[in-house]
Specification:
Length: about 170
């Protein structure tokens, strides 16, 4: 049986949803785009944080064997002030660095040119191994070694957090 019979009068229809103006629609689109951009930025921050944590975990896995305290005491770690630096010709990683060790000036060679320009090193107080046997690297004599932390290709120099005289012993 039919619910409506022929001739039945239908009442006035109610508006279920208000009509949206073009301006209101555009405003909502802008708001949603802003939300999406914010979510993308948050996702990028989370991704960068995860990458840093992964690099940290990788570095932890690569710990070396223990050395005795007596072996460690053989290292002469000193603060050195960078006086000058320049790229080693024909290389893309090496810098020739002149350092002040307080009692003398030395030249060291370091493979940090992809992370540091020569100009940004000048004036920095860095940490060096002062009693490392001299070595010739790509034809350039090196009389010491600067210390740096690295994960893959990312390098960060070890520096001191306060002004101290060049040659200060690190203990």
């Amino acid at each position: 049986e039919l619910a409506l019979r022929p001739g039945h009068v239908i009442g006035r229809a109610q508006i279920l949803f208000p009509k949206l103006s073009d301006e209101l629609i555009e405003e909502e689109i802008r708001r949603l785009h802003a939300l999406a951009e914010g979510a993308e930025a948050a996702e990028t921050v989370q991704k960068e944080k995860a990458e840093k944590e992964a690099l940290y975990e990788k570095a932890k896995e690569q710990l070396m064997e223990y050395v005795s305290f007596e072996e460690f005491k053989k290292l002469d770690l000193r603060v050195a002030k960078v006086l000058n630096a320049e790229r080693v010709e024909g290389t893309d990683k090496l810098l020739r660095i002149q350092i002040d060790l307080g009692s003398e000036t030395r030249q060291i060679v370091a493979g940090i040119a992809k992370s540091y320009t020569a100009e940004e090193l000048i004036g920095k107080n860095i940490v060096v191994v002062a009693n490392l046997e001299p070595a010739v690297i790509r034809g350039v004599e090196s009389n010491g070694m600067l210390l740096a932390a690295s994960v893959d290709d990312y390098i960060s120099l070890l520096t001191v957090d306060r002004d101290i005289e060049p040659g200060a012993k690190i203990k």
